[in-house]
Amino acid sequence: MKSLRQLLFTLFMVAGLAMAVSAQKDDQKKPPPKEGRPPVVTPADKNKPKDPPPKGNDRPKKPETSWTFAYAKTESDRA
Q: Which pTM was predicted?
C-alpha cells in the first residue's frame, strides 16, 4: 500500500510539474514593435572647437608634481 501511495504521489507530481512548465511557455512577453525610423547620426554633426589651441609659449603651464615626505622620529625603550 505504501509503495502504491508513493507511485501515485510521484505520478501526480510529474503531471503537475509538466502542466506548470507548459503554462509558463505561453506567458513570455514579447517587446513592443518599434515605431518610426531610428535617428541617423553622422560624424560631421559633432561640435567643433571654436579656437585652435595655442602653440609654443602661449600655452598655459601644467601644474608640477611635488613630493613631500614626513619623517617622525620615535624613541622606544628597550630593556
A: 0.33
Give the 3-state secondary structure of residue 53. coil
Per-residue pLDDT of the chain (79 residues; tens, 9 = 90+): 999 999 999 999 999 999 888 877 665 677 777 778 877 777 775 666 677 766 766 666 777 777 776 666 666 666 5
Nine-digit cell at 48?
567643433
59 contact partners, CB below 8 Å, separation of at least 6: 53
Q: How far apart are CA 6 and CA 14, in angstroms?
A: 12
Half-sphere exposure of 68 (CA within 13 A, CB side): 2
Check if the beta carbon of residue 15 is closer than 8 Å to that of residue 21. Answer: no
Q: Is the dihedral of CA 8, 10, 12, 18 positive or negative?
A: negative
Strand, helix or coil at 26? coil
Residue pointed to by grid coordinates 501526480: 12
